[in-house]
Amino acid sequence: MRARTTLVGGLFALLAGATFGVTTPFVHQLGAGVGTFGTSALLYGGAALFCAARRPSRPIAIPRRDMVRLVAVALLGGVVAPALLVWGLGRTDGARASLALGVEMPFTVLLARLLFREPIGLRMGAAVTAMLASTTLLALPAQVSGLADSAASPAFPLGPASTLGLAAVICAALAWATDSAVMRPLSSYDPRSIVARKSAIGAVVSALLGLVVGESFPPLRALVPLALLGALGYGVSLQCYLLAQRRIGAARAASLFAIAPLAGAVTGVIAGQAVVDLRLVLAATACAFAVALQLVESGAQPAETKNAVPSEEGTASATSRIERSARRRR
């Protein structure tokens, strides 16, 4: 049972990363002419509509303490992070931006260790080091890294603006990493309900911020494409990520979610958003190595993580206790 739970959790984490990764290069492309907050609102609006389309059969009342947590992650992961990503994507290409998002994994693993005492073995430590190396290769200036870029996309020429865009994308990744760690206790609830509420809050707040800063109403041609991107890259992805956290913990889920930067980089190159050069190849190789370290791990749950990974029965019991507690409060 434990091995099966670990396998299913790993597959959910991989699916979450893949669905998020392939959408990243298209966010700026399909959001041309749409403001930063308007794009964020449409992405999370699509995710909210997707999750709300099928209501859970037994909605679970969320206690006030966890509602505060939900609002916090909605503001951080549903407003701040996507705004930084959209702004950064407007100043760099989708392939490099996707790989830069890989810094989310090491930071999430670190927070999982500090907040939830989840173990970090040699394999995960090596994966974290590889992901940090991948991001560092992209972020360091050529004169520091010694790796000059041989070419760049005409639409996204390299330079100070591109470096600033990468910095914004890295900040978005750090915000999402904090969001993932803070959201870990919410993984025992129905994931569709959690994602629907988080996305709705993010969409509404982003839309209001867009009005405050004077962004114009998004053109009709952008409404459906961006909403569909949000449904896949945020709605489906976040539900799968919560299911993965429930089964294998925040650190392991983040380590397998690291397939997202690689999927995004490949998609960005195929879409013509970047020209392959030595720096990009080395960064993608380091990212692929980090993912491979986790994929080759045996299906059996390591002994050191047995107490860190909640079982299906334990999760169900925890959910029942939450429901009873909520009823007593009412």
Keywords:
mainly alpha; 330 residues; single chain; disordered C terminus; 75% helix
Description:
The chain has one domain. The longest helix has 38 residues, at 220-257. With 330 residues, the chain is mainly α. Mean pLDDT is 80; it is low at 150-157, 298-323 and 326-330. 75% of the residues lie in helices and 0% in strands.
* Parts with pLDDT < 50 across at least 5 consecutive residues: 150-157, 298-323, 326-330
- What's the average pLDDT? 80
List the total number of helices.
13
Largest sheet: none
Order of helices and strands: HHHHHHHHHHHHH
Our Rg estimate from Cα atoms comes to 19 Å
User: How many domains make up the coordinates?
Assistant: 1
Could you tell me the number of beta strands? Answer: 0
Ends apart, CA distance between termini: 36 Å
Outline: globular
Oligomerization status of the protein chains: single chain
**What class, by secondary structure content?**
mainly alpha
Percentage of residues in strands:
under 5%
Helix content: over 70%
Q: Summed up, what is this model?
A:
The chain is mostly helical. The protein is built from 13 helices and no strands.
Topology at a glance:
Blueprint (H helix, E strand, L loop, with lengths): L1 H29 L5 H17 L11 H26 L4 H7 L3 H13 L5 H18 L2 H4 L14 H24 L7 H22 L7 H38 L1 H12 L7 H18 L16 H18 L1
Helix pairs in contact: 1-4, 1-10, 1-11, 2-3, 2-9, 2-10, 3-8, 3-9, 4-8, 4-11, 5-8, 5-10, 6-12, 9-10, 10-12, 11-12
